[in-house]
Design brief:
Elements lengths: L1 H26 L6 H13 L2 E2 H8 L3 H13 L3 E5 L7 E5 L1 H22 L4 H25 L3
Antiparallel strand pairs: 1-3, 2-3
């Protein structure tokens, strides 16, 4: 019974994720998926970063990170900064347009989630929050046990 319930839950999560991707893509003015948005978020939080550092941090291959960086630069959402002492050292930096795009992405995401959760009662929201917090703690505990952050 538990396995059946877990598979039903997985299916429901996949349906929500797919719907979120479709709705977000239609609402967001840039031809970007979640990966470039995660990169912009990291750049906003941590400042200019080497592409290799970004790839390791987020868990992408170097090739995928190169493609994401090129797309962000071509759209004017990020820029490449060259080290004066070593031209081989290149950092990616979010631009003001990138800041705006990231803000827009957050707003669209917030609106989508507000619509999703409006069907829940206050009690259901509390229960859902408790479950999500427990799942996040489980993820963090496994990361700590494996020595990864």
């Amino acid at each position: 019974m538990k396995q059946t319930s877990i598979f039903k839950l997985i299916h429901a999560i996949e349906q929500m994720n797919n719907e979120n991707i479709i709705r977000f893509t239609k609402a967001f003015q840039y031809p970007l998926g979640i990966s470039p948005i995660l990169v912009l978020s990291e750049l906003r939080i941590k400042g200019p970063q080497k592409q290799v550092e970004l790839a390791e941090m987020i868990g992408y291959t170097k090739g995928a990170m190169t493609n994401i960086a090129t797309k962000l630069v071509n759209l004017g959402l990020a820029e490449r900064l060259y080290d004066e002492n070593d031209r081989r050292t290149i950092r990616l930096k979010i631009t003001s347009a990138g800041e705006k795009a990231l803000k827009d992405a957050h707003e669209i995401g917030k609106e989508m989630f507000m619509e999703h959760f409006e069907v829940l009662s206050d009690e259901e929201l509390k229960q859902y929050l408790m479950i999500q917090e427990k799942l996040v703690r489980g993820i963090q505990d496994r990361k700590n046990q494996n020595g990864t952050n």
